[in-house]
Amino acid sequence: MHADERQAVLILGGTTEGYALAGTLAPLAGLRVVSSLAGRTASPRHPPGELRIGGFGGAAGLAAYLPAERIAAVIDATHPFAARMGWNAAEACRDAGVPLLRLERPAWTQVPGDRWEEVDDWDEAARTLAARARRVLLALGRQELAPFAGLDDIWFLIRSVDAPDPLPPFAQAEVKLARGPFTLDDERDLLRTHGIDTLVCKNSGGTATDAKLAAARLLGVRVVMRRRPVRPALPTVATVAAAVAWLLPRTPPRSIGPSN
Ligand code: NAP
Question: Which ranges in the chain are annotated with CATH 3.40.50.720?
């Protein structure tokens, strides 16, 4: 059992929202704020409060962690595409009797001028590219590249935060390391300079990385957009403020107040 007597909230993070939520909650006296990251990024930003890194060992591991760490509530602020963690959290919180909230930014939707083709997985995206793309920007996770590596007639610009290791055997590819947010001018220059005709990305939502969609719209670049995976049905909010409003009644009144 954790020695700290304060009520604790576990934030399943790895997102801008998770980071911002930790920043809002950590200064509150009497509340222990623990952020959890999977450990995928080499040098992640350290959110305010406590940080733990690495998997829990499935739903059962998380269900054991919650009482051991005196977790009073969990907020799943993981990325919309981190679905396994979402399912594990739902199962673990149900088994441990701990309230769980989903904090999720709304999905992007098409606006006039967009040329999207929506797909359910990267194999479907690769088939779509094979039919008509020549120069493609892959704006997706560095561990998600393999389905595209067999498309030898296409030139790829691969953008990722950390270098793909190993890089799948692309016939024609250039890697560009970059971490968002990106501006519209940056994105337009990138698409123009490299003569990109198709952008491949997933429907992450939010404003940190949506400039690429506006740039694609302006330049008439086609977008192959991966739809979000199914997640468990849970109470869900879209903003940090709404998550805080959900959390406060679930922690004893004595524990909430400004710290010195
Ligand atoms: P995932 O497929 O849902 O999760 C795979 C496993 O990673 C989970 O079963 C869990 O391991 C561990 N894990 C995931 N999130 C964790 C967290 N916040 N804290 C501790 N363990 C975690 O997740 P993913 O798609 O690989 O994403 C990993 C992390 O990167 C997430 O935290 C997510 O917020 C962030 N992220 C993901 C994307 C994306 O596109 N997928 C984009 C940006 C950021 P155990 O079963 O051992 O507990």
Answer: 3-106+230-258, 116-226
Atom of ligand 1 nearest to the CA of 86: 3
Quote the CA–CA distance of 240 and 20 in Å, as a whole number: 7
| Angstrom distance (rounded) from CA 19 to CA 246 | 17
pTM, to two decimals? 0.89
From the list 58, 64, 74, the residue with the least C-alpha distance to 21 is 74
- Which option is the CATH number for 3-106+230-258: 3.40.640.10, 1.10.150.40, 3.40.190.10, 3.40.50.720? 3.40.50.720
- Cα 37 to ligand 1 centroid, rounded to whole Å: 7
Pocket of ligand 1 (CB under 6 A): 12-15, 36-38, 40, 55-58, 61-62, 78-79, 81-85, 88, 141
Kindly report, residue by residue over 160-175, the tens digit of the pLDDT. Answer: 988 998 999 999 999 9
* Token pair recorded at residue 181: 């947010």
Whose structure tokens read 């995976």? 229
Tell me the CATH class for 116-226.
alpha beta
CA 196 – CA 194 distance, rounded (Å): 5
> 47-93 pLDDT, tens per residue?
999 999 999 999 999 999 999 999 999 999 999 999 999 999 999 99
- How many beta carbons lie within 10 A of that of residue 157, not counting itself? 20
